[in-house]
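Dear colleagues,

As part of the handover before I leave the project, I'm documenting each prediction I ran so the next person doesn't have to rerun anything. This entry is a single chain, and its sequence is reproduced below.
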Amino acid sequence: MDSGHAHSHLGDLAKQTTARLAISLVITLAFVVVEAIAGFWANSLVLLTDAAHNFTDVIALALSWYAVRVTARPANSGKTYGYHRVGILVALVNSTTLALIVLGIFYEAYHRLVAPLPVEANILIVVAVIAFVVNAGTAWLVKRGSENDLNLRSAFLHLAGDAASTFAAILAGIGIALTRLEWLDPLFSLFIGGLILWNAWGIIREAVDILLEGTPRDVDMSQIVRDLLGVEGVRGVHDLHLWSITQNMHSFSAHVVTDDTPISASAAIQQQISAMLFHKYGVAHATLQFECAGCEPDCLYCDLEEANHKHTRARGAFE
C-alpha cells in the first residue's frame, strides 16, 4: 500500500469517527437540559449527578472530536512524530475531569445519606429510562475503535458510565417507589461514582505511562533481547528503548553489535530485526544503530542523564 493511499484511508476513517462523535455530542447536549430540569423537579441527586456527568460528556466528546481531526494531520518539520499524542492528552483531560466530578458526587452523596431528601420516584424512573436509551445509543456510536484508541476509549467511558448510572437510577427509582427509602438515591450515586472512578483511573494511569515514554505493559523487554540475539549475525545489543507514541503505536531504538561486515550485510540484518519487531511486537518504526564488536558499553538500557553530562562536559571543553 503506497503512502498516499494509506493517508487517504486514514483520512476516511477520521471523517467517519468525527461524524459519529458529532452526532453523539448533539444528542447528549440536547438531553443534558432535559435531565437537569427533571432532576431539580424530582429533587433527585441521581438525575442531577447523571446530568452533570452528561455535561462533561459534551466537553469530552468535543475534545475527542477535535483530537481525531488533529491526529489525522501528517507529520512535519515541527512535529516529526505527527500529532498522535493529542489524543493521549485529551484522554488524560477527560479521565481526570471524570475523577474530579466523582469526588464531588461522593461529597454530596454523603450529606444526603446523613439527611435524606424526598425524591419523586415516578419522575426519576421515567427520565432515567429515557436517559439510558440516549446514553446507550451514543456509547454504541463511539465504541467502534475505542479498544485501540485511548482518546476514543475515554469518550466511550464517559458515555458508558452514563448508561450505567442511568440504569442504576432506574433501580433506585423502583426501590424508592416500593420502599420509600430515599437514601437509596445517594447510595446508588456512590456505587455509580465508584465504578466511574475505577475506570477513569485506568485511563489516567495508561495515559501518564505513555506520556512518560514507559515500556508498553504487554511487552517483555527481556524476551525482546533474546529475540534480537537470536537473529543471525547479531553479537550483542545495548541502549534499548521501547516506547509508545499512542496506545497502539510503538517505536523502538537500539544499538546492535555485529561482526566487522560490509554495509550490505548490516542491511540484511536490519530487515530481519525490523520484520521480527513488527510481526511479534507491533513495532512499526525501529531505529537501529550498528556497531562492530568492541564498541559496545556494558549498559543494556542507556543512562540518558549520564550521557547528557558527558555531552555537556565535552561541549564545554571544546568551546
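Confidence is low (pLDDT under 50) at residues 1-10, 307-311. The two ends are 49 Å apart (CA to CA).

All the best with the project,
I.
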